[in-house]
Amino acid sequence: MDFHALLGKIRDHSRELGFTGFGVAEAALGEDQAHLRDWLAHGLHGQMDYMARHGEMRSRPELLQPGTVSVISVRMDYGTDPGQAWQTLHDSERAYVARYALGRDYHKLMRRRLQRLADFIAGETGGFGYRVLVDSAPALERALARNAGLGWIGKHTCLIDKDEGSWFFLGEIYTDLPLPRSALKPQGHCGTCTRCIDVCPTAAIVAPNRLDARRCISYLTIEHQGSIPEEFRAAIGNRIFGCDDCQLVCPWNKFAKIHAEPDFAARHRLDEAGLLELFAWSEEEFLQRTEGSAIRRTGYVNWLRNIAVALGNAAPSEANRAALAERCGHPDPVVREHARWALDRLDAALSG
C-alpha cells in the first residue's frame, strides 16, 4: 500500500469533516512518561486518582490499543470573542463558564467525526486496527499532538500553534497502520513571556509547564469533590465552571480564529447569564439544560457550590443575600456550607 498517498487522502477528508489541524505521531512518549511520573509522585493531580491508576497506559498507547504504531492527531477550533469573555469576568453579577463548555459537549461531536474518519480509512485499506479517543481514555493528547506537529506545549501546559493560538479541542485515532510521520515537532515560542503564570488567580502554574491541579480553578470547580478550600474561594471570583485566564492573556491567541461550528454556540445564554438566574435552577432544570453539555460533569450539588462561592465574591445586595439564605437550608451539607460562607462574606462587606 502507498501510505504516503493514503495519508494525503486522510488529511483531505479530515478537513472535509471540519478538523482544522491534522498530523501523525509515533507512539513512543519516553520523556513525557518521565514527566508524568514525576507529576504524579508529587501529588499534583489532587483527587484525580484515575491519573495514577492509568499512568503507564496514558504514556504508552500500545497498552491501551495493542498493535498501535501510529497516532493520528486532529484539532477543532472553539475560539470565541475574547472581549466578551473579559467583560463577563469583570462583572461580578454574571457567571463565567469556560468557553469550551458554552455549547454542545465536544467529546460527542468530535468522536462522531473521528469515527467517520476511521470509517473512511477502513474503506481505503479494507480494514485496520484502531481506537478513537476524545479525552475518553488515558492518553497524553497534548504530547501526541505536539509530536504530530500541531503545536508546542506552552508554559500553561496547553498546546499552542503560532498561527492558530490555543483555542481548540484535540482528538486521536490510535492505529496499527505505519503512516508517515509528520515533520519534526515544533519548537516552543513562549520565550521569556510569563503572562499565563502571572495571571493565574490561584497561582496554580507553579513553574513553566508545571500545573498544580489542586490549586487550579478548572480542577476546583469541575473535578474536585466536597468543600473547596477557603484559601482559594475569593480568587475564584465569578468563575463557576472552569477558567480561561491563562489562555485569554496568551499573546499567541491574537491569531486564534472565531469558531464557525454551530454546535459550539452558547446554550441557554451561558455566555451572559447572571449568577442569581443560574443559582435558581432546580435540579430538574439543571439536568434538562445541561443535557449534551460538558457542564453535566460537575453535577448539580457542585454547580450550586460553585455559584455560592461566586455570589460570595459579588456585590453584597439584598437579592444576593436572600438567594444565599435560602440555599443555607439545602439538604446537601456542601451546598449549605458554601452558602453560609458566602452569606457571611456579604454580611461582613455590608457591615464594613
Task: Describe the protein's architecture and organization.
- This protein is α+β, with helices and mostly antiparallel strands and 352 residues long.
- The protein folds into two domains: 155 residues, no CATH class; 148 residues, no CATH class.
- The chain has 17 helices and ten strands.
- The strands form four sheets. The chain has a four-stranded antiparallel beta sheet with strand order 1-2-7-4, sandwiched between helices.
- Helix 1 packs antiparallel against helix 7 and helix 15 runs parallel beside helix 17.
- The mean pLDDT is 95.
- Its EC number is 1.17.99.6.
- Its cofactor is [4Fe-4S] cluster; cob(II)alamin.
- It is found in: Cytoplasm.
- It catalyses: epoxyqueuosine(34) in tRNA + AH2 = queuosine(34) in tRNA + A + H2O.
- Belongs to the QueG family.
